[in-house]
């Protein structure tokens, strides 16, 4: 329960989807992490998977899952492209959404959303287009964002540079404690690395997203700083993601570098066996 508790706490604490999730339509109410006794998971997944077979097209209810899921992909994209230890984007609100089939190649969402920069508490309306390619091989959604200039221009260079200098010369990150811990707490010194881990994990969350997922960062299991290479700080970390739709908590290993000049570069990702091993082993696959 510790992890689930942390997820719920984190949702209340920092990520802005907690509000939108509680207002999502009847079909999705049961996906709140706190509402799930764990043994019910498998049935709910199957039921929802069946319900989701028919994709909404045309104008979407901005509070319902199809628009929210596509909008979440924009958040991952913005974090991956523009996030840093001191710049972290969240999805504040979906104002409108439209989905259409694109002849045999996939489905395209046009969205008007409010994006939130969590650290400076700044908000801006942005337009975005998210294209989910169809086909046997799952490809990353493609994202285009426009009219989002102000929030992307937010300047955190001096904080980034100070952190970089400290950890390049004088300090090393190494923690086997989960971020946040089961009480939702993060040591202030580790907060920039929590943010950085979210930014790096956005690479996975973007790549793995489909019209049937809604990924959030759940926890960092551990993070270890490796030797700096080519002026890039290098990190090895294990993260737990949370898909709100399936209630899965996939676990990934992630190797990445960061510097203020180059931003985040993901070098290697690897999905690890499921967190709830004990539950899964009890069931035939
Ligand atoms: C490194 O740390 C020591 C003590 O912790 C401090 O006195 C020194 O100024 C630091 N150097 C840099 C470059 O931050
Ligand atoms: C980090 O966590 C993962 C999974 O929880 C574990 O397999 C790995 O050994 C841990 N690494 C360190 C350095 O603690």
Automatic annotation (TrEMBL):
Coiled coil: none annotated. Pfam families: LXN (PF06907). It comes from Poecilia mexicana. Transmembrane segments: none annotated. Residues 56-159, 175-280 form the Cystatin LXN-type domain. InterPro entries: CYSTATIN_LXN (IPR049897), Cystatin_sf (IPR046350), Latexin (IPR009684). Residues 29-51 are annotated as: Disordered. GO terms for molecular function: metalloendopeptidase inhibitor activity. This is Cystatin LXN-type domain-containing protein. Residues 1-18 form the signal peptide. Belongs to the protease inhibitor I47 (latexin) family.
